[in-house]
């Protein structure tokens, strides 16, 4: 046996090999320690196994819960509840606030639309104005522009056309002149004597007429009465007028259509009164009816027609006065208005 250090070691040879008893002892001690550790850790391993089984069971329960139960989305439910409250409580402050917010969004949109519309309209107006100015400048360069007179603008014309009938008249002629001045001088001389006188141009000659009657015989009788005043007369039949006139209003057309009847009635009454110094009751009644109808013609814009209407109205008014006073001067004035009417009718 050998000694090594302080410890005593027994060496045994087995099958020709030496084995140290101390080493075997150490090996045995390590194996005992390992067995003790294993025996000590056994309870812990059981606990770990149980814990693992419980964890697996919990996970299985969790998976089962996820499949079996569907929990509502709390956030979505809250949003739905808020939406319902806003839509149902219109009178509450929340609803007013939402409406106010929406109103704030609408007002700027409306203002923007109005602004764009005004801007577009202004731009278009400026472009049109520039075009008009350019056209006006072009017309000014090309030539003068004829403007309508204020009278033409103030008096709108109509579309009615009237064919004027020729008025057969029996005139007492006081002279024929080649110039208007000579005829006017003679007419003025007769007017100073209180006699009717009117100059009319026919076929480039100037005729001076001093009376008119309803037929040729009465015209000659009237001429004989004037010859007593020192005037040479000649009675004859003439057709006055007979043209057409257009661009008349309806009231003017009606006036011209009624003119011949009133003229003939006035001429008949005047001739009878001049020769007999009296008026028949039938004539007075017929004249009153004609005057009533004549007054209905209003809004006469044509100046020539205004003159026609005025001359006949004056003649009718004077004959109404003559039915009361029977003055011969009144009949002379009636003759003057009838001659003025014929001159105006001839000029149409």
UniProtKB/TrEMBL annotation:
Residues 1-46 are annotated as: Disordered. Keywords: Coiled coil, Membrane, Transmembrane, Transmembrane helix. The keyword Transmembrane applies. The chain crosses the membrane at residues 106-129. Residues 295-325 form a coiled coil. Signal peptide: none annotated. Residues 15-38 have a biased composition (Basic and acidic residues). Gene3D superfamilies: Sporulation related repeat (3.30.70.1070). One of its GO terms (molecular function) is peptidoglycan binding. Residues 1-12 have a biased composition (Polar residues). It comes from the Bacteria. This is SPOR domain-containing protein. It comes from Robertmurraya siralis.
């Amino acid at each position: 046996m050998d000694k090594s250090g302080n410890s005593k070691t027994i060496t045994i040879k087995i099958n020709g090999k030496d084995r140290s008893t101390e080493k075997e002892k150490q090996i045995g001690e390590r194996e005992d320690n390992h067995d003790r550790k294993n025996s000590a850790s056994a309870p812990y391993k059981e606990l770990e196994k149980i814990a693992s089984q419980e964890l697996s069971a919990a996970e299985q329960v969790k998976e089962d819960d996820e499949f079996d139960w569907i929990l509502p989305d709390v956030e979505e439910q809250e949003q739905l509840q808020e939406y319902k409250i806003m839509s149902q409580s219109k009178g509450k402050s929340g609803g007013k606030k939402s409406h106010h917010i929406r109103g704030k969004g609408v007002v700027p949109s409306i203002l923007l639309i109005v602004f764009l519309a005004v801007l577009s309209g202004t731009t278009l107006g400026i472009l049109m104005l520039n075009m008009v100015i350019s056209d006006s400048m072009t017309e000014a360069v090309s030539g003068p522009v004829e403007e309508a007179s204020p009278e033409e603008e103030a008096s709108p014309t109509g579309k009615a056309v009237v064919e004027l009938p020729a008025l057969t008249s029996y005139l007492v002629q006081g002279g024929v002149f080649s110039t208007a001045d000579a005829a006017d001088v003679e007419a003025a001389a007769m007017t100073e004597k209180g006699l009717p006188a009117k100059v009319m141009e026919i076929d480039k000659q100037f005729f001076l007429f001093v009376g008119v009657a309803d037929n040729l015989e009465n015209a000659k009788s009237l001429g004989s009465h004037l010859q007593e005043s020192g005037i040479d007369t000649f009675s004859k039949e003439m057709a006055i007028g007979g043209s057409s006139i257009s661009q008349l209003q309806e009231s003017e057309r009606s006036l011209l259509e009624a003119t011949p009847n009133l003229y003939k009635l006035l001429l008949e009454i005047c001739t009878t009164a001049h020769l007999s110094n009296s008026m028949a009751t039938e004539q007075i009644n017929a004249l009153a009816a004609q005057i009533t109808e004549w007054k209905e013609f209003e809004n006469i814009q044509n100046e020539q027609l205004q003159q026609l209407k005025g001359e006949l109205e004056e003649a009718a008014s004077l004959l109404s006065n003559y039915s009361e006073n029977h003055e011969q001067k009144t009949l002379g004035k009636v003759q003057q208005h009838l001659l003025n009417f014929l001159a105006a009718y001839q000029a149409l």
